Amino acid sequence: MQAIEALFPANDYTLLAFIVLLPLLGAGVNGVFGKRLGKEAVSLLALSVIFVSFCLSVVTFLALGHAQEGETAARFYWKGWEWFHLSTQGGGNTTLNVAFSVDALSGTMALIVTGVGFLIHLYSTKYMEEDPGFHRFLTYLNLFIFSMLVLILGDSLPVLFVGWEGVGLCSYLLIGFWFETEANAAAGKKAFVTNRIGDFGLLVAMGLLLYYTGSLDWSGMEGHAKELLTPMQVWPLGSHVPAASLLPHGAEAWLNTPRYVSAATLVGLALFLGCAGKSAQLPLYVWLPDAMAGPTPVSALIHAATMVTAGVYLLCRLSFVMVLSPAAMFVVALVGACTALFAASIAFAQNDIKKVLAYSTVSQLGYMFLGVGVGAFTAGFFHVITHAFFKACMFLGAGSVIHAMHARIHDTDQSQDMRNMGGLRKYMPYTFWTFALSWAAIVGLPGTSGFFSKDEILLKAYTSFVKSPVAGNKLSDGNTTIELFSWPTWAGGLLYAIGLVTALMTAFYMTRLFIGIFFGEFKGWKIVKSWKAPAHGHDEADHGHSHAHEHAVPGQPLEGPTPHESPWQMWLPLAILGGLAAVSGFFNAAPLHITPFDHWLEPVFAKAGEAVQLIEDAEGKVPVFLALAFLAFAGGSGIAYWMYVTQKGEPARKFAEAFPRFHALVFDKWRVDEFYDEFVIGAVDSLAEFFTWGDKWIVDFVLARVSAALVSFSGTALRFIQTGRVQTYAAVMVLGLGAVGWFFVTPKVNATTHADDATGAYTVSAAPGLGYGYRWDLNNDGKWDTEEFGSQTDVSLNLAVKENRTVKLEVKNAFGRTATRSFSFVRPQPDLSGATSRLDLPSIGDGAVHRPTGLVHSLPKAGEAR
Amino acid sequence: MNMLGNYVEHYTMLSGALFTLGCIGFLVRRNVLVQLMCIELMLNAVNLTLVAFNRLHTGDMNGQVFAFFIIAVAAAEAAVGLAIVLAFYRLKSSVQSDEADQLRH
Questions:
Q1: Is B35 a domain residue?
Q2: What region, left, alpha or beta, does residue B94 occupy, with left being phi > 0 and alpha being psi -120 to 50 degrees?
Q3: Which among A719, A730, A734 has the least Cβ separation from residue B104?
């Protein structure tokens, strides 16, 4: 340990760079040379970079444990380079670095990502062996691990955002891995677009955090988080609502009333929107079930164990921001609970084993958000870890089953349909036993990891709540005072009830899945009679392999090998994950008071923990909750056992026949996709149609066609005067020369006059010209003062009050031509009675008075030219 | 001065007459060769003016040097112009300038 601490000091922990960059190296080499390297080399490189990264994560984890003695949080930091400068409100400057840091939270997450990631890489080398895109697959997986590590280890929100988008990209690439089938590409696109909606929220949160805290890195934001406790006007967006004045007065006043929320609430909700997109919460969960179009290891790694938990990680990371807003936390908890319940209800009626697991994932993510929302960050994050183990194990087990079924059925939909399975316990013992362990964990068999993590969340849902961040629950910035939301007393009961019902449902549908795959008789000798191809468009996303054959004819016996156990590269990861799923609960077994994990994360959540409160006598209720949790497990799986083993599925069939429409509704996932198609996508389509119309008729027609026609028409008209003959142009040129010549030959009398009525000084300045001579008549006698033309251009006069004077000027140019013009001046009565009387001066109607200053243009009068 | 005196007016009048003749000839004749000759006429009218006015400036020879430059430019112009006429004749078998009206289209 000393050696590591000496080599890598806490403020320059270079090891982080290796952890992050090794997977990128693997992705780069495999991406560029993968095709030439061959499968063995590609596997070796992809596996070794992740394995080394994992080992370094373990070293880091141990070093962190060594450094984190007592209550202080240990944090290792490594700065890559300076990224950019930001000027913030109030003249502050923020420097943003490409920097990484690791603490107890991110260190644990990095262990999960590299550890589970390595097992899934190992599994993939066998699962994807036959695929022509083998090297591409491992490249994407390595790139995913890199992006995920950037997301986890980034020291500021923008760096995290790079990883956040990176994992989104890899998710898109891997969902659409078999892009030859259009539905797979569409599923990838759906995931990407849905995530964009969430990313909008994350960007808004980032902007607000920068505005209020003046910083974007963890320590800076944590230090200034209290600045978020200020009222912020959210309505109207400008000074008033446009066109509101058209409404009746009462409605206008109501619309224009400024509305305030706490900035912390807005930041919390925006952050949660981002997390809801990435972690598939209501209402943005729709992409995750479709994401099952990707290869099964992808579903296990990205869409169960790691990427979808990034939202939970982010809320834990920014726990000090979230707890400042009880309202946002309540929304998180409520949405999490509702998602858990809603997704579990859909999982009831699905027959595709990957679909069941996908909805189960959405449901479990809902649990995590429920835990985070009530302020039990450790419990929520602990469920991330146990879920990573048991859900990855289940997905890989499902992959193993599909691998075996596909060898018989050669059809992606049919080989994933649990009605074609059954009795696989006999043929695939390793898969069966590992699946059994993870099944026990997810349904909450006492002692397994899922039991402890889920129970802790349910317990905290009832007992824990977020208290007001300010005394008196009033927020004021001096001008505005708002009252903050406070948690209702019934919140705990409601959240707990939803969670418990979901636990019961989870136990039921998971047992149904487990029984359907592994118990009873093997039904895959022929395709079930009632099997028909999925009817709805979005179901098409189930199509997987590019070499998917035509659907086998229902009812006909199939030729093909008996289902067989998968090779060791596939069952070894299953065994490790299954073992962890069974025992990892003891990292944080609160009922048994074994809580090393809680203790480990305590410094990270210390600040958030201050804002969270437990109800009275929380400890005393633990036995009741344990009993209820056990009842949910026993009840759910017992009913499923009775229904599907004792009664051979008769009650379920009868129920479906009794309520066919209800069954179809649940089978069609409550038709949420259709609802979105109709309203959200329909609205976007209408908008697009509107703009298409504008593009077609305004841009293309009015702007392009009409103006082109105008130009073309004027061109046609002007072509008549273009003869194309050189003489015509020469003649026009000669005419033009003539006109210019005439202009020079004609003299022009341009003169500026200046009048000063008060002193009686008047001046006339004649403009110069080529060869000009001037003669003047200044004394009103009608004769020129000098007969000769001289060079005097300026004259000045002094007039007495009320005196009239007409000045005449004659100009002669070099060609001997002359022009004349006259200027009349009248000096008015001096102003004696103040400024107002100036208005009473008699106006001179002939326009001959020039005052005070003006440029006079005059062409020579006809006949004056000599 | 000399026997001709300083009567620049005479030269400028002659020059103006020559220039007008060249100009009218260029405008009314359709034969490109004749038009080229008219251009030469106008250039030489200008040369004459330059040389004539140079007599008023006894110290320098700028006007006459300019005339030489114009003669050189005129030679180049004649070479290019005749080449164009030749090319045009090959194309149209004619040297009538009003047949060269393709540019309007």
A1: yes
A2: beta
A3: A719
